[in-house]
Input
Amino acid sequence: MFMKRRILGAALSGTLLFGAAGVSSRPYQEVGPQQTPVEAAIDAFSEARQYWISQNAGHAATRLIILDQNESFDCNYGYRTIHASGNEEVAFYCPDPDAVAITRKSLDAAEAAFPGQRDDAARFTTFHEMGHAVQFHTSGQDVSKFIGDYGQDPVSYELQATRYAGVAAGQTLSNGELFGINLYLDTDPDQYQWTHGYRRDHAAAFDAGVAGR
Ligand SMILES: [Zn+2]
Output
């Protein structure tokens, strides 16, 4: 899997030729060294934010918070406050204050778990959390409703966030970056995660978003 990526990265200087859904003819841009996970998260956040602003999804106030070790962030989820710590491996969207919070520790863990795909993991995570921001912004910016909608069917809500991630990523990332995210999502496709469901379903939801479905 990683070998395939290196071959593609080395061989392609013009148009990427593989046939992932919705990925067609934009130039392959990822030619230098990979970004660090934090750089990738910051870039992805900037791209996603600009895209959703252009779609009037209301991301002008959304912030990205990278939590370093021993830093903390309090998020109001309505019925309770989440005290997120930089000492944990977490990434989440917070409706109040409107922010995507990712710990450096979680980015480092992704780097360790997916060597060679560390920036792809960071990029996907950021686009996914921005998908949750779309859910919040398009449901009246009502924290209680946001939490209620999530609680009714967490897996569907998570898959929708991933589809939104695909929509924004498909419009803003290079083919190489999209390919990297596909590789990342294809890792352990049968893995089942509480609230998120099957990883393979997220891969399909991301592709559907890229393809504009
Ligand atoms: Zn999520």
User: Anything to note?
Assistant: The first strand starts at residue 63 and ends at 67. The pocket of zinc ion is lined by residues 128, 132, 158, 161 (CB under 6 Å). The first helix runs from residue 2 to 11. DSSP finds eight helices and seven strands in the chain.
